[in-house]
Amino acid sequence: MNLDKYRIFSKVVEVGSLTRAGELLNLTQSAISHAISSLERELGLSLLIRNRAGIRLTNNGERLIPHIREILQVNEKLNQEIAAIKGIEIGTVKIGTFTSVSIQWLPQILKMFQNQFPQIEIKLLDGNYHEIEEWIASGTADFGFVNLPTLEAFDVEPLYQDRMMCIVGSQHPLCLQSTIRLEQVITEPFIMPVAGCDTDVMRIFTQNKVKPTIKYELEDDHAIIAMVQSNLGISILPEMILSQLPENVVCRPLEGMYYRSIGIAALSIRNVSPAAQKLIEFIKKWITDTLTDNRNRSRETNR
To answer: In the chain, helix, strand, coil percent, each to 5?
Structure first.
């Protein structure tokens, strides 16, 4: 069974553009358009609507795309199983990831993994929590890093508890404290993270039945830090995001110790491809080893 047309169709839907799909697949836009038209003729169905605004799926396309992605995943898994039987480690793994994981973990993980398994290709899909859940659910990603709890339909492997920290300007009176109380936070102009860490931050306020004085809402973590740096308010962000703060911004733990929980999720971790299974196990071991090393360094420092 020739799956080239399915791959092209799936890529066009994924990126939302014939031109962009052609660039990624190293094909001309004409070749992409021809493949889609050929697939539509073969199926006897219209799959895409093309107009000046771009492309979108027809009702037929909406119904078929999950099955087409499933066929492509099964084919990829089959090829990886055949290669594994032959003693060859090959395959493509697509991971959904968010910014702090991409910055703090993945450079080291992927460098070590690619040295050990050079024929396994890794593709990263960078987005917020909700986008990653959608990619996993649709089969666009083999697995993803998620904020727990996540969708009940997913298999989950918990990885790490990331402490939530309050960030303030270095001239702010709160920076003199070793910890900051939540009742102090809600009296200050607050910069609310959105489309990502908002779930973690709002959970803290909701659990304690308090409301912040929201002055600004921003999606980009660096923009939030810049606003705090300009003394436009204070905020709460996960510790992983705060590894390289400007000199005039400080972070302090919240009294009560609040965390976000990072995990790996897939539709079925047992049934992901052999290459994806190897990468998941590699990530889990790297996290465990890194946490152990950090604890040992902390003990040495405190002696």
So the answer is: 50, 25, 25
The C-alpha atoms of residue 262 and residue 104 are separated, in whole angstroms, by 13
| Cα of 154 vs its chain's centroid, Å | 15
Place of tokens 């990885």: 159
pLDDT tens digits, residue range 23-32?
Answer: 888 888 888 9
CA 50 to the chain's CA centroid: 30
Give the N- to C-terminal CA distance of the chain in Å, as an integer: 65
| Interatomic CA distance for residues 212 and 231, integer angstroms | 17
pTM: 0.71
pLDDT at 287 over 80: yes
